[in-house]
Amino acid sequence: MHDLAIEGLIAKYIQDDAVVAIGTSQLAERFLKTLALKLEEKNQYIRFVPTSVRLAGLASELNLEIVSIEEHEIDVAIEFPDQADAQYNYLKTDSESL
Asked: What is the largest CA-CA distance in the chain?
């Protein structure tokens, strides 16, 4: 996925003050880094529900507020599967999810 596609997803789906969850993968790490930059540029804020220890660590490094799924309802959840079919069944092989 190109950086412009990531920026497009952010612009379309991530709103200020949203609670966001992102499935764990290398692409998710790129997405999270780009998201943090865009939030800083626009002076916006989100709360992040990590799906792995790896993403929690990265979110912390990026100064994103980490919250629990038990305390907040998720507004936007994004997954980056390796394969998907027409019925949106997907296969994910690169995962360290909790």
From this structure: 38
All residues at 6 or more sequence positions from 94 whose CB lies less than 8 Å from its CB, including other chains: 25, 26, 82
The predicted model gives 28-49 an average pLDDT of: 96
Burial pattern 13-50, b for ≥16 Cβ within 10 A else e, equals ebeeeebbbbbbbebbeebbeebbeebeeeeeebbbbb
Q: How far apart are the two ends of the chain, measured CA to CA in Å?
A: 24
Q: What pTM was computed for the model?
A: 0.84
Q: Which long-range contacts (CB under 8 A, 24 or more apart) does 64-67 make?
A: 64/32, 64/36, 64/39, 67/19
